[in-house]
């Protein structure tokens, strides 16, 4: 990855930031102007954070570092962006799922809500070099599950509730 590595991650980062912003919008109570600012701040924070941890030739390298996680602790990047629009961590926990994992990797952005939820792909682009076919086969089952789960409201909605 050369100096231009940062350019390549723009789509992945904007996809991930838009997703978190959509979750906030769906929860309600946050104004459009705040959401726009949140999204921009989150994109900036992610860009900064991932700058030297983006390896398009080895997409899985650094995946843990780029993983955005809410699990009874607020992800620092989301927390930072929320702070810029005056949202406290407590408020964020009310608005966002209590268990969220977002993987931002070169050529793929995916997420999981809940510890046992299906992994759903938000963005996917073929890797240069055509090695992509093998990796995708293992993932299709999840995507099928997601499509099926999408057509009928399922139990997955109760994962949004925060248990005390």
TrEMBL record:
Entry's Gene Ontology cellular component terms: cytoplasm; nucleus
InterPro entries assigned to the protein according to its UniProt record, in alphabetical order: Anti_prolifrtn, BTG, BTG-like_sf
Gene Ontology biological process terms in this record: negative regulation of cell population proliferation
Domain (Anti-proliferative protein): residue spans on this chain: 96-115
PROSITE patterns xrefs: BTG_2
Family from the record: Belongs to the BTG family.
Species: Pomatorhinus ruficollis
Cross-referenced Pfam families: BTG
Protein name, as recorded: BTG1 protein
PANTHER family: ANTI-PROLIFERATIVE PROTEIN DOMAIN-CONTAINING PROTEIN (PTHR22978:SF40), B-CELL TRANSLOCATION GENE (PTHR22978)
